User: What shape does this take?
Amino acid sequence: MKYLITGARGFVGGYLAAEIRRRDPSAKIIAVDRTGDSGLDLLDLEAVASVVAREQPEHLIHLASLSSVGASWQDPVASFTNNTNIFLNVLEAVRRGSAKTRVLSVGSSEEYGIVTAADLPLNEERRLAPVSPYAVARVAQEHLGDVYVRGFGLDIVATRSFNHVGPGQTDQFVISALAKQFAELAAGKRDHLDVGTTTVVRDFLDVRDVVNAYCELLARGTRGEVYNVCSGRGLSIDDVIGLLSTISGLSPKRVTDPARLRPVENAFVIGSNAKLRAAVGWAPSIALETSLRDVYDYWRAREALTSPGREGS
Amino acid sequence: MKYLITGARGFVGGYLAAEIRRRDPSAKIIAVDRTGDSGLDLLDLEAVASVVAREQPEHLIHLASLSSVGASWQDPVASFTNNTNIFLNVLEAVRRGSAKTRVLSVGSSEEYGIVTAADLPLNEERRLAPVSPYAVARVAQEHLGDVYVRGFGLDIVATRSFNHVGPGQTDQFVISALAKQFAELAAGKRDHLDVGTTTVVRDFLDVRDVVNAYCELLARGTRGEVYNVCSGRGLSIDDVIGLLSTISGLSPKRVTDPARLRPVENAFVIGSNAKLRAAVGWAPSIALETSLRDVYDYWRAREALTSPGREGS
Assistant: This one.
């Protein structure tokens, strides 16, 4: 089986490639990234179309994305083009040259927008009401996928993926940023914790459970359907800080960093994974405490690696 | 008062400029178009930002668009970039350099998608469910406007404008295409009527009533709100053909032209204009029969002008 992964060298891509190989050691995985030997600008439709037509993958997983909500407020245009426009190019490339390819369209829980307690847990029927540039880009992506299924007959399965957690995620994302700071605190390199709004509640899923769900959806998801990929439970950032305090044995002072606040923010986001469970028999397998310990250990190891080389240390 | 109109030299732009001048003879109208002396590529963010920052218009009306649903099925990428991306560039230009400008975001009834009889007439609360590339682009545009209002404090009023009718519209649009064919039939230049699906029902509003609504919304619409701009009544394409038969005195044979059929099509679209009426006191003033006669006369006059120069005639 041949797979094409956009954003293959990103955080999720590495885990996905590993999961595909675990399931099918003879799988051929075509990695498409903006940088590296196979550097390809996904904003260049003709280039994308050429690669897709040549490779004829059975499965295409579109992970390439500027997936930071915060960054989308800094540069809405870059966020939009590097989410929606690159996805549209991928779809158009498949339509033109490889119409049998099954596409996994990875969306976001941010598509739901501001929610009230009565909406929880969020299921796939809920109205989409995006409140950030990033969320708008993801909604447009999902709508485009729907149009290509219904109007052009493409085979697309879509997700609304909730917050990921796992070793290797950049510190643009809240848990990774917090775990990194705890590692710096443990190494004596900082004396406080910079935080944004700590009362917000999110649904965190280990990236290894995420990619397991993606493989199941490629194998058995229903064409044209969208599935939440989430844990089904909510944790506040305060909860996460508490768990990281327990793991690290540290209780740092908190300082609110204005750069970590956003113009519009969801108070809480918790998803229902009932549809995904029912469709493919998937269930989460990694406890959040395990995920947090792995992420903390990842940053501790990075601290240990980098500290000897620093000037003045 | 200074106005900046994108797409000013298009079909609606001409009528809008005339309406603005009728209301305010001393209005300064900056016309931004892709072609002409002031040629500006709206896909070039820096160029757009430079113009907006220099001009500081009180009102910006964004009419530039690839507004054909049919064409969006032929080239989804062009439709998306020339609707959503150019609008995002306009918003970003206003945010960076002219944040007090009131923006009129012109959307489309196509945003509603497939509807059932129970949904009619469509009001602004109905869920958006776009089913064409063009409709997806318009929904994304509206969502982006909402994000720029809520997240960046911009002053945007949005519309969902239903089908327009009026002299000067290109024959990409159904009524203009039919009226043109009736004019050709009257001139003896064709012997049948090419049609698509004639049972579809649409809500047609004269372009002069459309631009009147736009001026009222600029003056008195509520920031962050979206308003249907429509007649409130539905006509089938069969009805339109019947009226054009009466106007022209012709009853041509109909031939279904596959090029006029679409992969996914709404069966009927009728809007409610109650919100617009209540907000600004607007009401339609031109009967559809009058609009159709004007469009037919427009094409008859064009036929009269162009026929002597044709080879072989």
In short: Chain A touches chain B at residues 45, 73, 76-77, 80-81, 84-85, 88-89, 91-92, 127, 130-133, 135-137, 139-140, 143-144, 146-148, 150-152, 263-264 (CB under 8 Å). Chain A has a mean pLDDT of 94. The CA atoms of residues 7 and 64 of chain A lie 4 Å apart.
